[in-house]
Design goal:
Length: about 325
């Protein structure tokens, strides 16, 4: 494991559809190995592989299966209705769901009748035509049982914004899991949120305000507040950060340097933030300048902000934002 993970109590573990790791478990004995998952993110995480089709006893190679709509029921079987594995796959998904609390994320195979997260083809019973509104039967069990777990499909990870969003959520969720495992206290909760305030702001200003209100005004027991907090946090981070919200966050960070930077450096930072706002430079440019000034003019509160370094820098996820 890379040294980035030394801040965690244990390795960051992510569930993944086995075909995305290079395992030849697809119906035609092929795979869909993800370069990003295995060769880039894989430097910092460990994967636990799942293939629902193989797990329920289907052979390799095998006839293709699909989701078929019968009135209000959706089954998973061969096009002619034979080899129905609906019950077995549902049971398997529920079994897996009951033992993955240690995972910090999950990557599913796009379009799969078992693993697709959305827009899975659901064929009509008569076989003519289909709808694109299904959810893979296995994925559905994971998503419903673990609503806060960062999940994504391999195809969507080709999008720079969605890829960065997923990785941010994974590492944030892992830090939360470590806090819970160590025994949650009000101090730990407040400290965790303090470190993530500007990260939340960059994703949703409304969530930033709502979470602050929860922590500042709620009279509920700590455990209840913690459950509401992590649900609100993960929902907020799932919203992709926009250029406008990032600019607003950068301007807040600028404020910490107004008394220590000379006129030339202030103008330089302002110019880079504006250039980012106009789409002329990536987010990495003003953030690099802020991190540089932070080394020259240390600020303990600012140095702890996750927004400045939410994941390993060599993943280069902010080069395209």
């Amino acid at each position: 494991m890379n040294t980035f993970n030394t801040e965690f109590s244990s390795p960051v573990k992510i569930g993944i559809s086995a075909c995305l790791t290079g395992d030849k478990v697809r119906f035609d004995k092929s795979h869909k190995k993800s370069d990003f998952c295995m060769n880039q993110l894989g430097k910092y995480v460990e994967y636990e592989k799942f293939c629902p089709e193989v797990a329920v006893g289907l052979p390799i190679p095998r006839p293709t299966i699909r989701q078929i709509k019968y009135d209000d029921l959706i089954a998973v079987s061969r096009p002619d209705g034979s080899m129905d594995v609906t019950e077995e796959m549902t049971d398997y998904g529920q079994k897996v769901s009951s033992r993955i609390d240690h995972l910090s994320g999950f990557v599913f195979m796009k379009g799969s009748p078992s693993c697709g997260m959305s827009r899975v083809k659901v064929y009509y019973e008569h076989g003519k035509g289909c709808e694109h509104n299904g959810v893979g039967l296995f994925a559905k069990q994971i998503l419903e049982a673990h609503p806060n777990l960062p999940c994504e499909e391999n195809g969507r990870l080709n999008d720079a914004v969605l890829r960065e969003n997923f990785v941010t959520r994974v590492f944030t969720y892992k830090k939360w899991q470590d806090i819970v495992a160590s025994g949650i206290t009000k101090h730990k909760l407040i400290e965790f949120h303090s470190q993530n305030k500007y990260l939340v702001m960059s994703h949703s200003l409304q969530a930033y305000k709502s979470i602050g209100k929860l922590l500042g005004e709620s009279k509920e027991p700590l455990e209840a507040i913690a459950e509401q907090y992590i649900s609100m946090l993960m929902a907020a981070l799932k919203i992709p950060a926009t250029r406008r919200n990032n600019t607003n966050t950068l301007q807040h960070l600028q404020g910490y340097f107004k008394k220590v930077l000379d006129k030339t450096k202030k103008e330089e930072l302002t110019e880079q933030v504006f250039a980012y706002r106009q789409g002329l430079v990536p987010l990495l440019v003003p953030l690099t300048l802020i991190n540089h000034y932070l080394r020259d003019y240390p600020n303990e509160y600012l140095s702890k902000q996750v927004y400045l370094n939410p994941y390993p820098a060599d993943l280069k996820l902010r080069f395209s934002l």
